[in-house]
Specification:
heterodimer, A: 592 residues, alpha+beta, Elongation Factor Tu (Ef-tu), domain 3, Rossmann fold, 10-stranded mixed β-sheet, 6-stranded antiparallel beta barrel, B: 473 residues, alpha/beta, Thrombin, subunit H, elongated, binds adenosine-5'-triphosphate, binds magnesium ion
Chain lengths: 592, 473
């Protein structure tokens, strides 16, 4: 690669380099800079000059240094072995980097993303003579206990006839597993690897409706603000309000097949935490280690800012590749604000005209393009798969009116607003039930109806109404104190307060509570509404509210999230019974 | 287009040319000096500046092109002029010669002796900019540091290898607290080889003196390396001081296996110095005139903390920053909070009420405490107890607000109990003296004493067993 010189360095300004005497570089081409062979990408071409974004620290680069072309766009390598690996923003495997340069990441080293030596058990799924079109499966590889990796005809081949196919056996990703004949009669040899330019969405047949919820195991999300498989959501919140914890929880417990977790400009220790913890956690649905379905990208805050900009595209391209195999993929980006800031920094160094708060005018377009890559799709192979995008947003000062939050809001359909006051009082997850919304409610309603004996929609609505009433009542209480309200209204405050501690709060560190099954969520909501119903009736009969809230069974309700296991639905029947009895008894005393 | 031979020639040339002196600059603007007609100079290279009076200063290349080189001069540009200023480009980045003998010494922001004495030549030269730690090489920090301060140990527990800033304001007791932590901090695992790296950026001499005296009193001064870039030193030097300090810290922690506590004060001055350079270069600013890359610049410092698997040592960072106008949403505390693993937040009204340390626990947070507390580390009841104290104290705040509207007498008896709890909590749990060193058990017991003021059915974050064991005891 060192042979094709495309120009010389004219100027170095941090991660942005200007080249002169540019001969045949093309847009988005990946280049190597200087004798250190730092990786860069051409982002502008004009008048014999080029602007290059460098993906590594530019220290030491000099005017006059040669820049070498690669002839390729910045691409990801796709094939078996992605799962369980941790990459940097331009898909360099961090474990390999550590073997090469130790605990600190040095510059100018690179490795292929996939292990080219490892042998994978390939099972052919087509025969010689088969007519295939792009995206169709040639064979399969068991990548992890949980994921069967489909080896597909790359999207660049519209149609072909299989001339040779490897027999069942172990192959490296470099070995040829099929030879196909294209319509023009040319032969093409295929391996298990595909390359894909990260900034281009992989093609699909069509977008489908988003009817299935992505079950996250977090009650406030699933019950109040659900997201569909293939949906998009933003989690905005000031520092320490719980964006990362929420994303970790979802990455651990949601019912997607594949998780792509992107640490984009965040902390090193958080990635280490995922890396150390996920292999030990067991997926409640499959009984297998969570690492068996997880891909990680770590471009932490102290790693080069251009690679941070690239990291989300690297991640979503890998997600699309698994979607094309017919999987449901959930992708977490923590945090999209750091990505936007990388854009801002690069744009500033390129001396572009800034729009709001120094961000480039194309910020909204880029945000939209990213979220557009989500969806529930009919893939080229004919199977269906989805990508759900869950993006954290870190607004400066926690102020949601800033550009990144505002533009993101335009392109996502679900919004989980984190509230600083809730986080300070250690109400976790600190998702505000006032400022959050989901536009997927009607999409997922039939699914939930089926899974709750038809009660979900009405119960959700009832509790949301109580929460709205509470806001108004709280305003009165703030002015005149709770004694001014009649018991029937004070009881609404009481029920809402119970709903918050017993249902909305969820402790990510508690063995039982950290993941809540659909059945448990449905029953918990029923019990709390039952408490409201029975309690209100008793109050109408003259029972004082204090007596009701002191009932032992209320304490049990407050702790049911911690004490009752996910599949122990009988325990809820018993609890319900005790609740009814206790209140009836109390009512009995006052009736006389 | 050049041939390979020519390329080689350029490179040989550059090596030969590095070290050559150029005289006559084309422009001086604040801490920045522009020079034309040099040999090709590398980005980030170290520069030696020869002032007209013959003295030497150091600088770094900020921007390089085939037309001009922009150099920032760490000791400032006072006394430089256009014709007689000389420069040597050294062909390598700024390095620090590190050694264990730096402990016990007082240095400037570049790691040179402050008192004119010669420093022992270190064995190893380290690039002060450091390199990012590979996340796969990190070890997740878990070891609890007992500071002897209840509100920290109990509610925002410090972990060895964590980065936790103190968000303070002018005139508050942050220096006192940092000194107390430095004095009392211990890890229960014995045999730890402990030392302190102290970096002062733009603070007054008294502040530095206060720390030196306090280290001296405790007898640890020989184990402290001080990098001082004080208020009357050139502001540009502040931009390099924390990097120099952390370069030594990395050496001590990851090559010598020491447990290093890095105290950096005042981060706000560091950020202001960055803003100055940014403005000077005509960069497009983001919030409040700070450069758009402030987040990355701060991260490059704060992320130089933690533990590396198999290396024994650790870097725990305790940066101190004063919030302009006590505003926590100001870019400096805000961006810091987004990078660090929690924060300790000071509250002026608590100091006014005579509470020391004046820490408001509600906005304070330790993100790493989850893995460092509980059975086998502190005590089994610790996680739930902390949770309950937070929840109850946050209700106290609501009650106080209500009381200020309707009067205390109008409160329900339960809410009055909450007020009593809040009072006890602030004056007995949070408040303690500068010399008081409480064990974690003492801290937790005081926490229970506070909660025992409330009826037990209010304590929903605690389990029945925990209540049976500790409540009202
Ligand atoms: N569901 C939860 N259960 C228990 N604790 C939580 C939960 N969510 C958040 N926390 C607490 O809040 C702390 C901060 O959460 P988190 O790291 O997710 O914040 P963040 O919004 O990602 O902050 P930043 O923007 O600074 O990265 C955690 O360390 C943890 O102590
Ligand atoms: Mg986070």
């Amino acid at each position: 690669m060192k042979d094709r010189i495309v120009g010389q360095v004219k100027r170095v300004n941090g991660p942005v380099i200007i080249l002169k005497d540019v001969t045949d570089a093309s847009m988005m081409e990946m280049v190597r800079i200087g004798e250190q062979q730092l990786i860069g990408e051409v982002v502008k071409l004009y008048d014999g000059r080029a602007t290059v974004q460098v993906y590594e620290d530019a220290t030491g680069i000099c005017p006059g240094d040669n820049v070498y072309g690669s002839g390729l766009s910045l691409s990801v390598e796709l094939g078996p072995g992605l799962i369980g690996t941790i990459y940097d923003g331009i898909q360099r495997p961090l474990e390999k980097l550590m073997e090469a340069s130790g605990a600190f990441i040095s510059r100018g080293i690179s490795f292929p993303a996939l292990d080219h030596e490892k042998k994978w058990p390939f099972v052919p799924k087509v025969e010689v003579g088969a007519n295939l079109t792009k995206g169709m499966t040639l064979g399969e590889v068991v990548e992890t206990e949980r994921v069967v990796h489909k080896i597909m005809v790359p999207p660049s081949i519209d149609e072909c006839v299989v001339a040779k196919i490897a027999s069942e056996g172990d192959y490296t990703v470099e070995e040829i597993i099929a030879t196909v004949v294209l319509p023009d009669g040319k032969e093409q040899k295929l391996t298990m690897v595909q390359h894909w330019p990260i900034r281009v969405p992989r093609p699909v047949t069509e977008r489908l409706a988003l009817k299935q919820p992505l079950i996250t195991g977090l009650r406030v999300i699933d019950t109040l603000f659900p997201i569909s498989k293939g949906g998009t959501v933003a989690i905005p919140g000031g520092f320490g309000t719980g964006k990362t914890m929420t994303q970790h929880s979802i990455a651990q417990w949601c019912d997607a097949d594949i998780i792509v977790y992107i640490g984009c400009g965040e902390r090193g220790n958080e990635m280490t935490d995922v890396l150390r913890e996920f292999p030990l956690l067991i997926d409640p649905r499959t009984g297998q280690s969570l690492m068996q379905r997880t891909l990680l990208i770590a471009n932490t805050s102290n790693m080069p800012v251009s690679a941070r900009e690239a990291s989300i595209y690297t991640g979503i391209s890998m997600a699309e590749y698994y979607r094309d195999q017919g999987y449901h993929v959930a992708i977490m980006t923590d945090s999209t604000s750091r990505w936007a800031e990388a854009l801002r920094e690069l744009s500033g160094r390129m001396e572009e005209m800034p729009a709001e708060e120094g961000f480039p005018a194309y910020l909204p377009t880029r945000i939209a393009q990213f979220y557009e890559r989500a969806g529930f799709m009919k893939c080229l192979s004919g199977e269906t798969g989805s990508i759900s995008v869950i993006g954290a947003v870190s607004p400066p000062g926690g102020d949601f009116s800033e550009p990144v939050t505002q533009h993101t809001k335009r392109f996502v359909r679900c919004f989980w607003a984190l509230d600083r006051a809730l986080a300070s009082s250690r109400h976790y997850p600190a998702i505000s039930w006032i400022d959050s919304y989901s536009e997927y409610l009607t999409d997922v309603q039939p699914w939930w109806s089926q899974h709750s004996d038809g009660t979900w929609q009405i119960n959700r609505q009832r509790i949301m109404e109580l929460l709205q009433k509470e806001v108004r009542l709280q305003q009165i209480v703030k002015l005149v104190g709770p004694d001014a309200l009649p018991d029937s209204q004070n009881f609404i405050l009481e029920v809402c307060s119970l709903f918050k501690t017993a249902f909305l709060q969820q402790n990510a560190f508690d063995e039982v509570d950290r993941f809540c099954s659909v059945g448990k969520q449905v029953r918990m909501l029923e019990i709390i509404l039952g408490y409201y119903q029975k309690g209100s009736e008793a109050i109408a009969k003259g029972v004082p509210m204090v007596k009701i809230r002191r009932l032992k069974v209320v304490q049990e309700i407050a702790r049911m999230r911690l004490t009752i296991e996910n599949d122990d639905l009988q325990a809820f029947d018993k609890l319900q019974l005790r609740l009814e009895r206790s209140i009836d008894q109390l009512g009995g005393i006052y009736e006389d | 287009m050049r041939t390979k031979e020519e390329t080689l020639l350029v490179h040989t040339d550059r090596h030969l040319l590095s070290g050559r002196e150029y005289r006559g600059t084309s422009r001086i603007d604040g801490p920045l000096v522009y020079m034309r007609n040099t040999h090709p100079v590398g980005y980030g290279e170290l520069v030696e500046i020869i002032a007209p009076d013959g003295s030497h200063r150091s600088g770094q290349v900020l921007d390089t092109s085939d037309e001009a080189v922009v150099v920032q001069v760490y000791e400032g540009t006072d006394g430089l002029n256009l014709p007689d200023t000389g420069m040597r480009f050294l062909g390598e980045p700024l390095t620090l010669s590190v050694s264990e003998q730096m402990l016990g010494r007082v240095m400037n922001g570049l790691g040179k002796s402050r008192d004119g004495s010669t420093l022992p030549q270190g064995a190893v030269e380290k690039d002060v900019n450091g390199e990012p730690i590979n996340p796969t090489a990190r070890e997740y920090p878990r070891d609890f540091i007992q500071t002897g301060i209840s509100v920290i140990d109990g509610l925002t527990t410090l972990i060895q290898g964590q980065k936790v800033p103190i968000f303070s304001g002018n005139g508050l007791d942050h220096n006192k607290l940092a000194a107390q932590i430095a004095r009392q901090a211990k890890v229960r695992k014995s045999g730890a080889d402990f030392c302190i790296v102290f970096a002062a950026m733009g603070v007054k001499y008294d502040v530095a003196r206060y720390f030196i005296d306090s280290f001296e009193e405790t007898g640890v001064l020989d184990n402290v390396a001080l990098f001082l870039s004080l208020a009357d030193d050139p502001s540009i030097e502040r931009t390099i001081t924390p990097k120099t300090a952390l370069t030594l810290a990395e050496y001590l922690a990851f090559e010598k296996g020491k447990q290093v506590l890095v105290i950096m004060t005042d981060m706000t001055n560091y950020c202001e110095a960055l803003r100055e350079i940014g403005t000077m270069r005509g960069e497009i600013p983001s919030r409040k005139g700070y450069p758009g890359y402030l987040y990355s610049s701060l991260a490059e410092l704060y992320e130089r903390s933690g533990k590396i698997a198999g290396r024994g040592g650790s870097i725990t960072q305790l940066p101190i920053l004063t919030m302009p106008n006590d505003d926590i949403s100001h870019p400096v505390p805000d961006l810091t909070g987004y990078i660090t693993e929690g924060q300790i937040v000071f509250d002026r009204s608590m100091q006014a009420r005579g509470i020391y340390p004046p820490i408001n626990c509600l906005p304070s947070l330790s993100r790493l405490m989850k893995d460092g507390i509980g059975e086998g580390m502190t005590r089994g009841d610790h996680p739930h107890l902390a949770n309950q104290l937070f929840a109850s104290y946050s209700h106290v705040k609501d009650v106080q607000n209500l009381a200020s509207v309707i009067g205390e007498e109008e409160l329900t008896s339960l809410d009055q109990q909450y007020l009593e709890f809040g009072n006890f909590f602030e004056h007995k749990f949070v408040n303690q003296s500068f010399t008081e060193d409480r064990s974690i058990e003492q801290t937790l017991d005081i926490g229970w004493e506070a909660l025992s003021i409330l009826p037990s059915e209010e304590l929903q974050r605690l389990s029945d067993e925990e209540i049976a064991e500790h409540y009202g005891k």
